[in-house]
Amino acid sequence: MMWRFPLSRFLYVVVALFITACTIPPEPGSSAVMPAQVMPADARALVYGRTVSEVIRNPELREKLPSLFGADWMDPSQGRGQVALGAAAFFEKGGPLRMVNIAGKDYIAVTGCVANSCRTRRVLLLIAEGGSPLLARLDDGVVPRYYAHSTAGVAPPPDAPIIVDAGLRALQSAGDAYPSAN
User: Fold this and answer.
1) What is the pLDDT of residue 182?
2) 101 lies in which domain range?
3) Is residue 118 part of a domain?
4) Beta carbons within 8 Å of 70's beta carbon, 6+ residues apart
5) Total of domains in the chain
6) Comparing C-alpha atoms, which of 114, 109, 134 is closest to residue 124?
7) 126, 111 in Cβ contact below 8 A?
């Protein structure tokens, strides 16, 4: 007696084997394996202000932000930086302030965008409890730029891009991470 295997079932098995064979586990320490989640809103998210513009103008952060972004804070017309508009412009339109927990550490998540380019020119700023370190991801084109700054003689975490990407992934899992284009 001959065993029959329908062609559609055979193709299903071949595709399943191909997908399984092509799956590569994430590298240890990558943002895909770094645990991150959006936390319920509480007073900690508002410690530097209730809006993104208040956070940017907060006396504790007003000097730290230019240090975080360095020459990229202001536009290159002043002979500095490589971000066309300057990182400060990426906070023109702010999103909601939220708390995220990344690998057991809480951060205030501040999102913003250039008002007329919210889909392509975005920023995510993570502020650790106590205001240091500051970590950021600025999307202005194809390749994101990452920034890290700490105070009190403590070096910023060497895995800052992984931390920021894990925070962004958590925010995206809860909805749109950035302000809307409207």
Assistant:
1) 61
2) 30-173
3) yes
4) 81, 147
5) 1
6) 109
7) no
97-151 confidence digits (pLDDT tens) = 999 999 999 999 999 999 999 889 999 999 999 899 999 999 998 889 999 999 8
Give the number of C-alpha atoms closer than 13 A to the C-alpha of residue 52, restricted to the C-beta side.
23
Res 17 pLDDT > 50: no
Segment holding 67, helix H or strand E? helix 64-69
Identify whether 144 is part of a domain.
yes
Looking at this protein, which amino acid is placed at residue 34? M
Cα-only R_g, the chain: 21
Q: Any bridge partners for residue 148, and if so which?
A: 135
Domain-located, residue 11: no
Distances (CA, A) of 101 to 38, 50, 119, 154: 6, 19, 25, 21
**pLDDT of the residue at 82:** 76
Under 8 Å between Cβ of 125 and 98? no
